[in-house]
Specification:
80% of the residues lie in helices and 0% in strands. 0% of the residues are buried. The chain starts with 11 loop residues before the first helix and ends with a helix.
Length: 59
């Protein structure tokens, strides 16, 4: 037997709640994936900015 009740037997409220949970989980995973891919870019950009600022200050 399935852990989740069959879709046809679920009430409308339970269906809506299940859809919201699935959408929230997908959005959370997508946002984590995007943020994780942007972190190295942010680090390199900040290091470049600080290096340029330091080089211009010394001249």
């Amino acid at each position: 037997m399935s852990l989740l009740p069959r879709w046809e037997l679920m009430t409308d409220e339970a269906r809506d709640k299940t859809k919201r949970i699935i959408v929230s989980a997908v959005l959370l995973l997508l946002s984590i994936w995007v943020i994780r891919s942007l972190i190295p870019l942010v680090i390199v950009t900040l290091l470049g900015y600080w290096t340029l600022k330091w080089l211009l200050k010394n001249n």
